[in-house]
Amino acid sequence: MKALPILSLSLLALFGGQAMAAECPSLLQHNLPQLRSKNTIDLCQRFAGKPLVVVNTASHCGFTPQFKGLEALYKRYKDQGLEVLGVPSDDFRQEAASNEETAKVCYVNYGVTFAMTQPQHVTGDEAIPLYKELIAQSGQTPRWNFYKYVVDRQGKVIAHFSSLTKPDDPDLLKAVEQALASQP
């Protein structure tokens, strides 16, 4: 009789884990190294069920001051569930030479508190799986640094914006509010 509860708990653990994996959209089923840390960011654990803005960044770009606007966007909507993920990239030859310098630009120069990864590839064959799926869903590859994707609570890209679009642009804000209103 005691074997049955143990078996039931084992099955629950097995199938409960599969149910959790099924709830996490494929877009987020990845881990990325966190900037200024030995830890990784489990995208499912951190972002599943939350609206998300994903942006490829660079420390030495004319658009780098957008960090300030991205931080303001994050602070404005974080209590409603919005997350922002910054993905530094040297694909356009404007990222710092070291993770330490990238971290200084983000955290010291611009006071970033949203999630940042270590530099990654976001274009071409070497693009990380997260970006490959962002590109597949939106039909748009980042053409430059600070390209923005807005993802709803189901892990679907609902809008994308060029580097020229500032974080306080009304169209970007409208997309963020649409993502916030989406159901998990």
Topology, pairings included?
Layout: H1 3-23, E1 31-33, E2 40-42, H2 43-47, E3 52-57, H3 66-77, E4 83-88, H4 99-109, E5 115-116, H5 129-138, E6 148-151, E7 157-161, H6 170-181
Parallel strand pairs: 3-4, 4-5
Antiparallel strand pairs: 1-2, 3-6, 6-7
Q: Explain this structure to me?
A:
Strands 5-4-3-6-7 form a 5-stranded mixed sheet, with helices on both faces. Strands 1-2 form a two-stranded antiparallel ribbon. It is of the alpha/beta class. It has 6 helices and 7 strands. It has one domain: 3-Layer(aba) Sandwich (Glutaredoxin).
Alpha plus pi helix count: 6
CATH superfamily: Glutaredoxin
Helix content: 25-40%
CATH topology: Glutaredoxin
Order of strands, main sheet, comes to 5-4-3-6-7
Proper CATH architecture: 3-Layer(aba) Sandwich
Q: Overall mean pLDDT score?
A: 90
Q: Over all CA atoms, what is the radius of gyration?
A: 18 Å
How is the main sheet built?
5 strands, mixed
GO molecular function, one term: peroxidase activity
Protein name: Glutathione peroxidase
Keywords: Oxidoreductase, Peroxidase, Signal
Family: Belongs to the glutathione peroxidase family.
